[in-house]
Write a structure and sequence with these properties.
By secondary structure, the protein is an alpha/beta fold. The chain is about 40% helix and about 15% strand. It is built from 16 helices and 14 strands. About 55% of the residues are buried. The protein binds N-(iminomethyl)-L-glutamic acid and fe (iii) ion. GO terms for molecular function: imidazolonepropionase activity; metal ion binding.
């Protein structure tokens, strides 16, 4: 079982790869409000029980914090399985996007879907995520052709949070793809995106994100959009260096972003800049796997740059059509070459930091919400190496079983 009751609490940022505390024969006391009141040796915790206490027996299984997935495109219409054969035949992800497919095809479907249809599709996805132990999840907008579609995605994500009783962190990402035709020109298009931000923030978006990429949004455009978001009081994230290192990581450092995500193609300089600025690196090993690209240089991030690393599923229809966060974690072990301990830190505490939730989620500690996963496996190494299936026996969100 993980417990951090001995340290001062998680630090977010460049020094965030702390070790995980481990306890054997331990128990967790949870109050009626779903808050952890004590963690310790089973005997002393059991003494706290009274006649009304309910017990959950982990049956010798490993118990860890609820998983935090800090980068998803949860709400979207349709699917894109027909792109894979094109990619296998040699087309690149950016070729497909530039031909009007990729994100732009999901934009068309998401715009056409009713709110109910979007809700039904995303509900299935969220239920799958929960089965793998996810108790906090980020959801981006960004498959939109207008403010109305952005707001529709945001409303769906908000309804999902209510339906599932879990926290969803909302990110506005109107700057996700550039339409093929821009009748009023590129500058006017950027102005349109800028004009959406106040409404998205007012509707509940806490973060803003931009796909800063060769042939998508430039560093200057990303800066313009994210500075405007910051002026509104929003926190910022960047899809940085996914394909071409045009300076996305450096921009994230310059803006003091909460996280910089992808980083497949980042330069040493970009990664050092992130560490210096205390930006959390979010690696998306499912995406590099599905795009058949070398994984991000997590060992360099951890060992050379001393950069805090989180992992996320990036669940989306184009580059990672899988809600299996357990698989994400196994791929972190296998392709990012992280240790099991680093993987669990990256999927809990650091993932919470990547959402500005370092003081709420990602750790089992007195005073925190009782978001807890009980595994039908004796140790974390088994969970990660026996890959592709769920080892989750039970999930508690704020002390209540959701599974
Ligand atoms: O994080 N890179 C941009 N956004 C997503 C992909 C979205 C899509 O292809 O639909 C990503 O990989
Ligand atoms: Fe993404």
């Amino acid at each position: 079982m993980d417990d951090e009751s001995h340290s001062d609490g998680p630090r977010c940022g460049a020094d965030a790869m702390q070790t995980v505390g481990e306890m054997r024969d331990a128990a967790i006391a949870i109050d009626d409000a779903g808050v952890i009141v004590d963690v310790g040796p089973e005997k002393s915790i059991v003494d706290l029980a009274d006649a009304n206490t309910q017990f959950i027996d982990a049956e010798g299984g490993f118990v860890g914090p609820g998983l935090v997935d800090p980068h998803t495109h949860l709400v979207h219409g349709g699917s894109r399985e027909k792109e894979l054969p094109l990619r296998l035949a040699g087309a690149s992800y950016l070729d497909i996007l530039q031909a009007g497919g990729g994100i732009l095809s999901t934009v068309r479907e998401t715009s056409a879907y009713s709110e109910e249809a979007l809700f039904a599709q995303a509900k299935t996805s969220l239920a799958r995520m929960q089965r793998f132990g996810v108790t906090t999840v980020e959801a981006k907008t960004g498959y939109s052709s207008s403010l109305a579609v952005e707001l529709k995605q945001l409303r769906v994500a908000q309804r999902l949070a209510e339906w599932a009783g879990i926290e969803i962190v909302h990110t506005a990402m109107p700057a996700h793809a550039v339409p093929k035709a821009l009748p009023r020109g590129r500058d006017a298009y950027i102005e349109e995106l800028l004009a959406m931000l106040p409404d998205l923030q007012a509707a509940g978006a806490e973060f803003a994100d931009v796909f800063v990429e060769d042939g998508v949004f430039s560093v200057d455009e990303g800066r313009q959009i994210l500075q405007a978001a910051k002026r509104l009081g929003m926190k910022v994230k960047i899809h940085a260096d996914e394909m071409v290192p045009i300076g996305g990581a450096q921009l994230a450092a310059e803006l003091g972003a909460t996280s910089a995500d992808h980083l497949l193609a980042s330069t040493d300089e970009g990664l050092f800049a992130l560490a210096e600025a205390g930006v959390m690196a979010v690696c998306l090993p499912g995406t590099s796997f599905y795009l058949q690209k070398p994984a991000a240089r997590a060992r360099f991030m951890l060992d050379e740059a001393q950069l805090g690393v989180a992992i996320a599923s990036d669940y989306n229809p184009g580059t990672c059509p899988s809600e299996n966060f357990g698989l994400t974690m196994s791929l972190a072990l296998l392709t990012l070459k992280m240790t099991p301990e680093e993987v669990f830190v990256a999927a809990t505490r650091n993932a919470a930091c990547a959402l500005g939730r370092g003081d709420v989620a990602g750790i089992i500690r007195s005073g925190r919400p009782a978001d807890i996963v009980i595994y039908a496996a004796a140790n974390p190494e088994y969970v990660l190496t026996h890959f592709g299936v769920s080892h989750v026996r039970q999930v508690l969100v704020k002390g209540r079983p959701v599974l």
